[in-house]
Design brief:
alpha/beta, Rossmann fold, 60s Ribosomal Protein L30, Chain: A, 3 domains, 4-stranded mixed beta sheet, globular
């Protein structure tokens, strides 16, 4: 046996006996193109898949499933948010010399407008009212933002910019429209809202002083009763607003309208809430604006509504070994958004007199002055305003002879009952601590 024969025999014994026919060149290329081939014990080729290829296929399938599921969830969420058609936003504002006119839309209105625009629908309607019903201040504005004619904008940033432009244009147009009549016709304004609400969800931002002066809702007569009784007496004239979501915005008094005392401010709030409940509307939020807007040019005047009488408070006298607290209503003492006194210093000192007298008698060791604000506007500005008002009150105490005073402002950080937006948070709280108290907190 020669060497070449021996070599072939050894090769065959290792891999098993092969057929003497060799595969053609083309068949070998096709086999390699289809993937790796292994050899069985019988010597024939067996198709296999590499672990890397199997992993890539599994990963691709998983990505496809995730994308499909994600698309389904997004579509489901969008369908839930866009369940109805014919949704509308209405801005309804009373415009008099005593209320001014809003220069810019509130943030929550812009947010709702963007939600509707994301659904490819929605309208914005502007209503202006004075003493004779309400008028539509400009044409109804579609909130749909288009990338090109017939193609709705889907990019969130571009859509929000488009919505802002639409809403700003509507507010600018509304400022040029003068409503008819003089006074404040709240019933007529609610009737206009009822006629303009859409077949879907209607969100209404209703800005008003809250003290109408046009019959049947003339508060100069109705304020003789409590708010619920006042609304019950005019219930037959209140239009129905079922399904309407109201965002109530209470304007501050201006012009000839005197500043509200605590009793009048609470009455107007309760009156408007009772009136909207009588209309079967859903009140979503209540905001009391403190910044006085300038009146629109040639805006009609409204008769001034006098404050409800406040009972003269009987200031308690300090008792030995007990802290004494005075709550100063900052809405009645200060000009809105300033630390400037609205009333006389003598009136403020009258409320501080028990502390000043007790200090001179040696009853107190120290006094704290803490300013609070109702939750409206930027938090940083609220802290600064409450600090300025607390410092102003502390200055009066020093003038009265009090020497150990700590004054600071908490802004919104320590809200008082019943809620952070209530008038009860517009206060400056002064506490005098007795000398005989073991631990002064």
């Amino acid at each position: 046996m020669d060497r070449s024969t021996s070599h072939r025999t050894s090769h065959h014994s290792t891999y098993g006996r092969r057929s003497s026919r060799r595969p053609s060149y083309g068949a070998g290329i096709r086999g390699r193109a289809r993937g790796r081939r292994g050899r069985s014990r019988a010597g024939c080729y067996v198709r296999t898949r590499s672990p890397v290829r199997r992993g890539l296929l599994a990963a691709g399938l998983a990505v496809a499933v995730v994308l499909a599921l994600g698309g389904f969830m997004v579509a489901h969420a969008r369908a839930a948010a866009c369940h109805a058609t014919g949704d509308r936003i209405i801005w309804a504002e009373q415009e008099t010399q005593e209320e001014g006119v809003s220069q810019s839309p509130p943030p929550d209105l812009l947010s709702r407008a963007d939600q509707l625009a994301a659904c490819g629908e929605g309208q914005l309607i502007m209503l202006a009212s004075a003493g004779q019903g309400a008028v539509q201040a400009g044409p109804a504005m579609s909130l749909v933002v288009y990338r090109e004619p017939g193609e709705v904008e889907n990019d969130p940033t571009a859509r929000q910019h488009g919505v802002q432009t639409i809403v700003d244009a509507a507010f600018a147009k509304a400022q040029t429209v003068r409503p008819p009549g003089s006074g404040r016709d709240v019933i007529g304004l609610l009737a206009a809202i009822a006629s303009e609400r859409g077949p879907g969800t209607t969100d209404v931002w209703l800005q008003t002083l809250g003290l109408p002066t046009v019959n049947p809702a003339d508060v100069r007569k109705l304020m003789a009763a409590d708010p619920a009784q006042a609304v019950a007496s005019i219930a037959r004239w209140v239009p129905a607003l079922p399904g309407v979501r109201i965002h109530l915005v209470l304007s501050p008094p201006a012009g000839d309208q005197p500043r509200f005392n605590t009793v009048t401010d609470a009455w107007r709030r309760q009156f408007m809430l009772a009136l909207l409940r009588q209309a079967k509307a859903q009140v979503v939020s209540v905001t009391e604006v403190e910044a006085v807007e300038p009146p629109a040019p040639e805006a009609p005047a409204a008769p001034a509504v006098p404050n409800l009488p406040e009972s003269t408070p009987q200031l308690p006298q300090p008792r030995p070994a007990q802290p004494y607290t005075a709550r100063l209503d900052s809405s009645a003492l200060f000009v809105p958004n300033t630390a400037q006194f609205l009333t006389s210093k003598a009136e403020v000192l009258k409320q501080l007199q028990p502390i000043i007298t007790g200090w001179k008698k040696g009853l107190f060791s120290r006094v704290t002055v803490v300013g609070h604000c109702a939750r409206y506007g930027p938090p940083l500005g609220a802290v600064q305003l409450s600090e300025q008002r607390a410092s102003k009150v502390a200055g009066l105490l020093r003038q009265g002879g009090v020497t150990v005073i700590t004054a600071w402002g908490v802004g919104y950080d320590q809200p008082l009952p019943p809620n952070p937006q209530s008038a009860t948070n517009r206060v400056v709280i002064v506490t005098a601590y007795p000398k005989t108290q073991p631990t002064e907190a």
